């Protein structure tokens, strides 16, 4: 899966690949991931500024399938 975030000003988007079985579904409206594969600094800064985050899941085998989760995130 991928994580995307962006600041309120400017046209910069931060998009990072994730994985390693770090995603958990906590409830029908909540998910969490452990950022082990990157620094997470830019995503954390964007979340502190505006809270916006997007998760993107895509299939690399078989039919192309994409699912996006849009929401508000927080750093713990």
Shape: globular
Strand order of the largest sheet: 2-1-5-6
Briefly note the structural class of the backbone: mainly beta
Q: Nearest-angstrom radius of gyration?
A: 13 Å
Give the N-to-C terminal Cα separation.
Answer: 20 Å
Number of strands: 6
Note poorly predicted spans: none
> pLDDT average, as an integer?
90
Which percent range fits the helix content? 10-25%
Spell out the helices and strands N to C: EEEEHEE
Beta-strand residue fraction? 35-45%
Main β-sheet: number of strands, strand sense, barrel status?
4 strands, antiparallel
Helical segment tally? 1
Task: Describe the fold and architecture.
With 76 residues, this protein is mainly beta. It contains 1 helix and 6 strands. The strands form 2 sheets. The chain has a 4-stranded antiparallel beta sheet. A hairpin with a 2-residue loop joins β3 and β4. It starts with a strand and ends with a strand. The mean pLDDT is 90.
Layout of helices and strands:
Blueprint: E1 2-5, E2 14-17, E3 23-27, E4 30-33, H1 41-50, E5 52-58, E6 66-72
Antiparallel strand pairs: 1-2, 1-5, 3-4, 5-6
Brief summary:
This protein has 76 residues and is mainly β.
List keywords for this structure.
single chain; 76 residues; mainly beta; two-stranded antiparallel ribbon; 41% strand; globular
